[in-house]
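Appendix B, Record 12. Input sequence as logged:
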Amino acid sequence: MPELPEVQTTVNGLNKKVKGLVIRDVWTDYNSPSKMNRDNIKSPAFFARFKKKLAGAKIVEASRRGKNILIHVSKAGAKKSSSAHDATILIHMKMTGHMMYGRYAFDAKKSARKERDPWSPVDNGPLKDPFNKFIHLVFSLSDAHGRDAGQLVLSDMRKFAKVTFIEKDIADSNDKTQNAYLMRSLHLAGIGPEPLESSFTYDVMRVRLMKRPSGKIKTVLMTPEIIAGIGNIYSDEILWRAGVNPEERVENVPEKKLRLIFDAIKSTLRKGIDFGGDSMSDYRNIDGERGTFQEQHNAYRKTGKPCSKPGCKGIIVRKMVGARSAHFCNVHQRLIGKAPKGK
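Logged structural output:
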């Protein structure tokens, strides 16, 4: 699943490629019986409203909350400053989703026959990567003069992604932060603090982690209600840097190690963004290209490899922790306390 660095990389790409463009049409082949009557485009009734509301909307900017992409739009006919928005498209890419921008052609005959993948990129290049062909959502765009400006698409091999639409309440019309209506949305409720914001201090981290004192540190780090945006890959890399066993109880981690975890959270996530995200699996950026953070791994999927920490004689081992795979060094990440059971 794309984690904070991959989502932020996508957001950065959206702001570079589609900011200021206008949505002239929306297409999808999502259709899930389990999502009927929900505010999700997998419900045909909701998608019909979604498409109607977005017709003519201008993309003002993109941002991120946890692992959610937020595309802020100014709806058609609205009179406001160029930086204001009155609604937001929320996209959670889930396990296999990633967004791309380019020029695509639609095969109507293929679609009529209900064949897979009726959309294909016009030009040769990274958009034709096999991992990029599972297109289930397409925003057709135009520029300010009404000229065709290509398509913004969502490739989602396993079709797990969530896409919805959040409108600003009338009561929020004078909200200067533009965020009050988003923070009240059930889709964003309960997400923990953003670890790369300046307000995320060591003391904040410690308080958040201590909400689950008997929990395993890896599992707690990955809990979005505790800290936003950290998943399986980055938790392994953070704990490797800090020298903490993934099964360590939070309450057993000494302050010195907690401070190392705090530093590792900041540095590892920033490094993930600097390297364009992690494409060990199928994540691709807005241009359909692979990120390179997977080339920087010290622990994740390094099972059986010698530990790369200078002077360490350990080997990277793999163990299931809270139904997820954990990769860690059997020497410099030794368990201090007794491992908790079932947490």
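The CA atoms of residues 21 and 143 lie 5 Å apart.
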